[in-house]
Every structure is written in structure tokens, then in C-alpha cells.
């Protein structure tokens, strides 16, 4: 789809995201996640590296599946404590001009009328630089804390998400005409009431008359990201996502996933090429191979295997403390994140033991780890971009913020030298800088 590589920094407003134990590395700054200046520095560095966006994962609930208690997760800072990412965005936008911000929000535990207002506000405040990573949430502990007896079933969560998106499109795209706000001091008309419509949504989960309370923001609908990989999750992504976060551990699995989603998008009446694909990747780079290897060794030593198992137990909703570490991981159908299970059990090329999964997943869960000089790391990025056909990457950090700085100082110049990465941003909104279009693509259900 693209002629140049897209980059997102994949991070979380918490101590640990997906490299559990890395907060112990010398000089690591993860503990400063609640410090505004940590994030404004991240924003400046990401923009210097031509990143499209900083992509914030987020979770509701606590990782209490492992050993059937929360002790490991709390002790080892497994995505707890964490703060809400949305509130960081205005501060990060203030110190940047073009960088975008993808915010993860759950369709299971938000109300669409309320979330539409929050995203419109962020889109106004950032001059159109916001994306919505649509998730359905997977932890049982979130349901309990948010007033539900049980977590909704996996596919039912996606049904609610479908209707949730339908409401958002009506609020963002249909409720206010472009020229509704007239601001005519003389006549005293700020907004022409004829140009603001109710949405009168009546569905299975929501009854929402509207209209939207916010006037149209630069992008109206934020850029839409999604990461589902179960059958139902893929259907949802094929219908709604503009960009998909791919989480598959082998090239073949990524190729199959991309082909499958493009086919499903076409079935939904969309241009299959309007969907962009971003695998996660963990670059570990040094000026020489020795330096890179030394970093890799230090990062691997810092992995907290028990913490990783606590994280994965939440991802797959299965207590991995029950299993013999040398036991092969069997395929299961989970009510949580099917894609993480599939990543380790649905490929023919390898059988993974529990111990191997914990060790591999310690540096970024299911994503490939690339270790080497700037040229070697750039080779790998180029290979995925040109030969495998992905559009960009969600770059995962291990040491914070050193991994990002290393990447921007060492790999970005090499990618630019090769003409793979832009030198300057083009376009005003995030959708323009990432996709070269102003609105949702034709054939998308939210397209006006
Ligand atoms: C790579 C990846 C990243 C994800 N990030 C988040 C996240 O930050 N927050 C969240 O609640 N869910 C996250 N999810 C969960 C998905 O959005 C989705 O709700 C879940 O995977 C269930 O769908 P599936 O079974 O189709 O994969 C992520 C999933 C994957 C595969």
C-alpha cells in the first residue's frame, strides 16, 4: 500500500509493558512513567525519528490469572501500576508538530457517547493527530471492577464493539455538517441548528439519540487501529480497521494473516489495499555487532520469567503456573487473546515449551527480536517492508528510553539514507501523514 515505511513506538503508560523485568536495567527510566517530562522527551525523540505515532497500549483490570492471585503481577509491576494514556496526549502534542498519538480504549468498558466526546476533544487539541486502538478487553478482573458479574464472552464483546463503532461513526461523521458552526456575531447564531442532527441510534446494546456534543474535529473519526486475530477479531478488523497491529511470530504467519484480512476486507466491500499492516518488532542495535550482542545479553538477563508468565497467563486466560516448564504448549480456544495462543501453537514449524515461550516472550511477547548494527537492523526492516509487504512497524522498547534513542540515532539515519523513511512529515493530520488521505477510505462503514 505504501511507498515509504511507517513507524509507531509501541509503549504503555506504566512501568512494564511487554519486557517484564527490564525496569531493573541500569539507567532504565520506566519508573518515571508518571512524570510528564519523561513523555514529552519520548515525543520529541519519536518526532525526530520521523515516527508516525506513539502508540499507547492500555489495560483494564489486574493480571491475577497466574497462580490465581495478583501477587506476582503487583510485585513485578506487570502493567500495574499504570495510568490512563489519554491524559498524556495534550502535553506530548504541545512539544511536537506532526507526531500522532494512538490511544487504546475498550469498547467493552466505555460508553460510545462518552468516548466520542473524549476522542473529539483530543483530536481538537492535537490538530487532528489522534488514533483509536479499538480493543475489547480480556481480563476477568476488569469486568468485576467495572460492575459486571462476568466478563462478556469473546465473540459477544466483538458484537458490542461493532455496534459501538456504528454509534461512533454516526456521532463523528453524520451529526454535524461541516458548515454547522457559523459564529455570526451580528445575528447571534453560533451554530445553525438545521445543520446539527440527532443520530437516533437504537440497537441491541445502546439507545442514543444524539446529537454529538462536540463540533467536528480535524479528522472527525480518529485513525482506527485494531489487533484482533481470532476469526471473529479478524472479521471486525476487516470491517473497521484502517491499520492492523499484526502479532504473528513467523514470516509465513504474517503473510497468511495479511492475505486473509485483505480478502475479508474485500468481502466487506472495502479496497483491500486501504488496510495497512504493522507487525511488532524489537530492535536491539549497537554501533558494532559486539555492542549489540552485549545489549541483547544484558536485556535477556534482566527478563523476569515469572513476571512474563504472569503477563502471558492474563493474555491467554490460563494459569501457566500449573504447567510443567518443559511441557509443550497445547492449542486452546481462549476467551482472552486468541492471537497470543495462536502465535505459539498454530504454526507448523515449531513446538514451544512453556519455558521457551517465557524466555522468548520476555523481550516483547510475540514479536521478532532483531539484534545487530544499524545496517543489519535496517536490512531486517527493509526485508519485512519490501519482501513480506508490511506497511510499517510497531517498534517495541526493552530499555526505556534507551531503546528508542538507539533506534532513532542509529537505525533511522540508515533507513533515511536508503530512501525508506521520510525526512520530513507531509500532511497536517495523522491520517494524512500516515495514509495520505483526509477522511476514512471509500467503502469503509464510517465513510461519509
Ligand atoms: C499485539 C496485540 C496488542 C494488543 N493490545 C491490547 C491492549 O493494549 N489493550 C487491550 O485491552 N487489548 C489489547 N489486545 C487485545 C485485542 O485488542 C483483542 O481484544 C484481543 O486480542 C481479543 O481478540 P482476538 O482473540 O481476536 O485476538 C492486543 C492484542 C494483540 C494481539
In a few lines, what is going on in this structure?
This protein is α/β, with parallel strands linked by helices and 448 residues long.
Helix and strand composition category: alpha/beta
Give the CATH level 1 class: Alpha Beta
Biggest sheet strand order reads: 1-2-3-4-9-10-11-13
Radius of gyration: 22 Å
Tell me the count of domains.
1
CATH topology assignment: TIM Barrel
Nearest-integer average pLDDT: 94
Helix-strand string: EHEHHEHEHHEEEEEHEHEHHHHEHEHH
Please tell me what the overall shape is.
Answer: globular
- Alpha-carbon distance between the two ends: 22 Å
The unreliable regions are none
Question: For the report, how would you describe the main beta sheet?
Answer: 8 strands, parallel, barrel
Assign the CATH architecture: Alpha-Beta Barrel
Number of strands: 13
**SS summary, helix count:** 15
The unique ligands bound to this protein are:
flavin mononucleotide
Q: Beta-sheet strand percentage?
A: 5-15%
Query: CATH H-level name... which superfamily?
Result: Luciferase-like domain
Helix content: 25-40%
Family: Belongs to the NtaA/SnaA/DszA monooxygenase family.
GO molecular function, one term: dimethyl sulfide monooxygenase activity
Organism: Halobacterium hubeiense
Pfam families: Bac_luciferase
What does this structure look like?
This is Dimethyl-sulfide monooxygenase. Keywords: Flavoprotein, FMN, Monooxygenase, Oxidoreductase. Residues 30-391 form the Luciferase-like domain. It is a single chain. By secondary structure, this protein is α/β, with parallel strands linked by helices. The chain is 38% helix and 14% strand. The chain is built from 15 helices and 13 strands. The strands form 3 sheets. Strands 1-2-3-4-9-10-11-13 form an 8-stranded parallel beta barrel, surrounded by 7 helices. A two-stranded antiparallel sheet has the order 5-6. It has a two-stranded antiparallel sheet with strand order 7-8. Strand 1, helix 1 and strand 2 (53-57) form a beta-alpha-beta unit. It starts with 5 loop residues before the first strand and ends in a 13-residue tail after the last helix. The mean pLDDT is 94. The site of flavin mononucleotide has 20 residues, from strand 3 and helix 11.
Amino acid at each position: 500500500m505504501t511507498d515509504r515505511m511507517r513507524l509507531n513506538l509501541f509503549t504503555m503508560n506504566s512501568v512494564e509493558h511487554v519486557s517484564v523485568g527490564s525496569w531493573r536495567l541500569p539507567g532504565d527510566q520506566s519508573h518515571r512513567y508518571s512524570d510528564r517530562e519523561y513523555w514529552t522527551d519520548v515525543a520529541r525523540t519519536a518526532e525526530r525519528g520521523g515516527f508516525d505515532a506513539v502508540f499507547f497500549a492500555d489495560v483494564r483490570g489486574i493480571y491475577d490469572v497466574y497462580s490465581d492471585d495478583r501477587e506476582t503481577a503487583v510485585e513485578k509491576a506487570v502493567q500495574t501500576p499504570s495510568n490512563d494514556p489519554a491524559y498524556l496526549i495534550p502535553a506530548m502534542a504541545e512539544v511536537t508538530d506532526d507526531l500522532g498519538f494512538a490511544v487504546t480504549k475498550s469498547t467493552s468498558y466505555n460508553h460510545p457517547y462518552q468516548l466520542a466526546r473524549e476522542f473529539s476533544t483530543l483530536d481538537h487539541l492535537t490538530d487532528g493527530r489522534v488514533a483509536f486502538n479499538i480493543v475489547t478487553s480480556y481480563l476477568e478482573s476488569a469486568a468485576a471492577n467495572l460492575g459486571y458479574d462476568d466478563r462478556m464472552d469473546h465473540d459477544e464483546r466483538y458484537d458490542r464493539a461493532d455496534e459501538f463503532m456504528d454509534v461512533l461513526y454516526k456521532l463523528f461523521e453524520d451529526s454535524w455538517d461541516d458548515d454547522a458552526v457559523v459564529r455570526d456575531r451580528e445575528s447571534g447564531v453560533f451554530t445553525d441548528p438545521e445543520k446539527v442532527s440527532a443520530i437516533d441510534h437504537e440497537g441491541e446494546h445502546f439507545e442514543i439519540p444524539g446529537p454529538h456534543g462536540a463540533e467536528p474535529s480535524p479528522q472527525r473519526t480518529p485513525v482506527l487501529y485494531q489487533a484482533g486475530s481470532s476469526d471473529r477479531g479478524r472479521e471486525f478488523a476487516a470491517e473497521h480497521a484502517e491499520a492492523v497491529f499484526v502479532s504473528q511470530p513467523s514470516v509465513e504467519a504474517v503473510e497468511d494473516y495479511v492475505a486473509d484480512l485483505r480478502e475479508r476486507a474485500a468481502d466487506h466491500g472495502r479496497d483491500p489495499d486501504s488496510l495497512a499492516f504493522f507487525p511488532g518488532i524489537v530492535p536491539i542495535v549497537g554501533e558494532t555487532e559486539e555492542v549489540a550482542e552485549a545489549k541483547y545479553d544484558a536485556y535477556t538477563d534482566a527478563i523476569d520469567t515469572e513476571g512474563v508468565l504472569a503477563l502471558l497467563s492474563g493474555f491467554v486466560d490460563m494459569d501457566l503456573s500449573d504447567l510443567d516448564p518443559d511441557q509443550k504448549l497445547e492449542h486452546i480456544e481462549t476467551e482472552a487473546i486468541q492471537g497470543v495462543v495462536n502465535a505459539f501453537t498454530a504454526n507448523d514449524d515449531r513446538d514451544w515449551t512453556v519455558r521457551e515461550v517465557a524466555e522468548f516472550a520476555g523481550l516483547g511477547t510475540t514479536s521478532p527480536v532483531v539484534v545487530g548494527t544499524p545496517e543489519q537492523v535496517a536490512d531486517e526492516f527493509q526485508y519485512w517492508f519490501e519482501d513480506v509487504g508490511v506497511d510499517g512497524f510497531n517498534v517495541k522498547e526493552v530499555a526505556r528510553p534507551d531503546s528508542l534513542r538507539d533506534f532513532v540515532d542509529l537505525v533511522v539515519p540508515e533507513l533515511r539514507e536508503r530512501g525508506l523513511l521520510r525526512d520530513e512529515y507531509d500532511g497536517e493530520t495523522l491520517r494524512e501523514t500516515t495514509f495520505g488521505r483526509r477522511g476514512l477510505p471509500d467503502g469503509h462503514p464510517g465513510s461519509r
